[in-house]
Write a structure and sequence with these properties.
Mean pLDDT: 90
Oligomer: single chain
Distance between the termini: 31 Å
Number of helices: 9
Low-confidence stretches: 1-42
Order of helices and strands: HEHEEHEHEHHEEHEEEHEH
Strand content: 15-25%
Largest sheet: 9 strands, antiparallel
Number of strands: 11
Structural class: alpha+beta
Shape: globular
């Protein structure tokens, strides 16, 4: 059976006779996933609600695993793009409840609707977050006038060593879960459902979250061995979300109200070089003690960073320390919501060194005022630059959340 036929069977009556552009999980037709009679997935602790004012996977407490992918749309048919986004929304509504997107066992002559590797693993706190890249707003779909000003291409930044094949994209999908198979299952099935409409451009798997996004989480460590994101925005900080994360009335495009902007950067760490550096130098590079995570001006992790403190005529926190240059107080008060993960992609064939580091993800209200100026400063002055290379970069507009079955990402944009 052709993939187009499989998709039609999957959508069933949800698209309607006119190809109603959206599939919200109702009316999957033949092969619809069924819930166990003795379970209510939406009420289990492992389920993060899929529908809401904002997309899950932003304010949600960061999970342990990441599967991220960027897609390029291969069609110029606006209806086909809308149908794809509706198909993805229907599939995500099922998967975030720990269900298959459709029956794994189908007719022997037809491929199964769900690939099956996540069967029995449960929801595992899965969240699925979708965004639109600047390149989606070209002439193919007539969207040029609806491109937000904040979705401006990230300019060349100091220290960039970007690989074009690992950067950009028309669409992005961020799948986060506490089980790696559950997260990967989303990307695999989204890629399959996209056949004929979009292709995966690049992807990245992540492990070991590197930022806490809730006051109920401990601060984890990155591959440099330091606690990362101690002063990150937490989901209990509603004012910070309104001020720095959620797009509000200031936007020039109403369809983005309640959304956010996602910046993704693959930052390779030169681990072997770092591991030969003495402890005191490592701590001066970061501006924190390695074991406790405390700022060099304090004793405990959450002590206030005292950037003005001087000892023997020298700043306690060096002028080129990472935490000094990234601090809101040195960046006009602006903050970012970080949701990064460690990654490892084996050995670099050219150098024989580990290809590992940080897959940096940050959400914000306006990258032009937040990520870009902060990174420009870091790229020019950060002592950490000796040990890192930025190898990929991408920006996506993440629209607001979906309200109910039948809703889909970009519905107000494309209709």
């Amino acid at each position: 059976m052709a993939d187009g036929t499989s998709r039609r069977r999957f959508l069933g009556g949800a698209l309607g006779a006119a190809g109603a552009l959206a599939a919200g999980g109702a009316g999957f037709g033949v092969g619809r996933a069924t819930e166990p009679a003795d379970a209510s997935p939406a009420s289990t602790p492992s389920v993060v609600p899929f529908y809401g004012e904002h997309q899950a996977g932003i304010a949600t407490p960061a999970q342990d695993r990441l599967a991220f992918a960027a897609f390029d749309v291969t069609t110029s048919d606006r209806q086909a793009l809308a149908t794809l986004l509706g198909t993805w929304a229907a599939a995500a509504a099922q998967m975030t409840k720990g269900l298959e997107i459709g029956a794994v066992e189908t007719a022997p002559q037809a491929p199964p609707i769900d690939t099956g590797e996540a069967v029995g693993l449960g929801a595992s706190q899965l969240t699925v977050t979708v965004g639109f890249g600047p390149s989606l707003f070209d002439d193919r779909f007539g969207l040029a006038t609806q491109r937000p000003a904040a979705l401006a291409e990230i300019p060349a930044l100091p220290g960039d060593a970007l690989q074009p094949q690992l950067s950009g994209g028309d669409l992005c999908v961020q799948a986060c879960a506490d089980d790696p198979t559950v997260a990967f299952h989303v990307i695999r099935n989204f890629a399959r459902l996209a056949r004929g409409t979009a292709v995966m451009k690049w992807s990245q798997l992540g492990f070991g979250r590197t930022s806490s996004t809730s006051k109920n989480q401990q601060t984890e460590r990155n591959l440099l061995g330091f606690k990362d994101g101690t002063n990150n925005i937490k989901n209990q900080d509603a004012h910070d979300f309104d001020d720095y994360v959620w797009v509000g009335r200031e936007t020039d495009q109403a369809w983005m109200t309640g959304g956010s902007y996602l910046v993704a950067r693959r930052i390779r760490m030169l681990i072997e070089s770092w591991d030969t550096d003495q402890l005191s130098d490592q701590e001066n590079v970061i501006g924190r003690y390695k074991t406790s995570g405390a700022p060099l001006s304090g004793k405990h992790e959450f002590d206030t960073v005292q950037l003005e403190e001087v000892r023997h005529g020298t700043p306690v926190i060096p002028v080129n320390a990472h935490i000094r240059l990234a601090a809101p107080s040195t960046n006009g008060g602006y903050k970012l919501l970080r949701r990064g993960y460690s990654y490892t992609d084996g050995i670099d064939a050219q150098t024989g060194l580990l290809d590992a580091g940080l897959f940096f993800i940050a959400f914000q209200k306006d990258p032009r005022k937040q990520f870009v100026p902060i990174q420009r400063k870091l790229g020019s002055h950060d002592a950490l630059n000796e040990y890192i290379h930025h190898t990929s970069s991408a920006l996506f507009a993440v629209p607001p959340g979906l309200h109910e079955a039948g809703d889909w990402w970009g519905k107000s944009l494309l209709t």
